[in-house]
Amino acid sequence: MIADIHANLAALEACFESIEEAGVDEVWCLGDVVGYGPDPDACTDLVRERCSICLAGNHDLAVLGELEVESFSESAAAAVTWTQGVVAARTLAFLRGLEPAGRREGIDLCHASPRDPIWEYVLTREQADACLDAQSQRICLIGHSHVALFFTRLDGAGGNVRSAQAADGSLIDVSGGRWLVNPGSVGQPRDSDPRAAWLALDTEASTVLFRRVPYEIEKTAEAIVAAKLPQPLADRLFIGH
């Protein structure tokens, strides 16, 4: 499971190498293939080749012109405009075929949240409580916030919601209760860990394993600067925030 790639080729390649070593059967992408980073076409090519399913994220939709950039931060809007000027026709064709929500193996998949698959950042227990009610399946996988974390309610409707950020190697039993799980970001982590993030879901054992992977941050940062994308997009890669 991967999310929030943001055209960071070095991070994506490191994740795919880790995924291959783990012997994963399928790779699912929760969206934001483009945006922020300098390699929209190369990242989209890899996702198209290796992912069984891919969702549309808000940055993908903005590059397609389906969302107004006025709702983005200054750096994000600049990255959208830059991407629109360099992106290949094959990338746009792929992005046009994506939706922000879906389902696979009886699991809900949403770029942002089951209440709002495009925009909602699920970071509080109050938000998660409403989302756990809104999701159609017991487990829902989300991206968008760039933070590796999970929310769960084990007591049925109205029960207490438990949550935690998930460090590298965290293994969670999801065999009971309702779950909202975010694998974190491949290309722009914002949980103070600059390593690329992905998550392994074992549908037979009902577990999720959070993974972090080091990659050549300097290489991506240099490419961002060379492309004349906003400097903060390069700087934040080193601190994961």
Biggest pleated-sheet summary? 6 strands, mixed
Cα gyration radius (Å): 17 Å
Q: Which term fits the overall shape?
A: globular
The multimeric state of the shown protein is single chain
Residue stretches low in confidence (pLDDT < 50, at least 5 long) are: none
Strand content range: 15-25%
pLDDT averaged residue by residue: 96
Count helical runs: 8
- Strands, total number: 11
H/E topology pattern: HEHEHHHEEHEEEEEEEHH
List keywords for this structure.
globular; 241 residues; six-stranded mixed sheet; alpha/beta; 11 strands; single chain
Overview of the molecule:
The chain has 241 residues and is an alpha/beta fold. β3 and β4 (107-110) form a beta hairpin. It contains 8 helices and 11 strands. The mean pLDDT is 96. It has a 6-stranded mixed sheet, with helices on one face. A 3-stranded antiparallel sheet has the order 8-11-10. α2 crosses α5 (89-96).
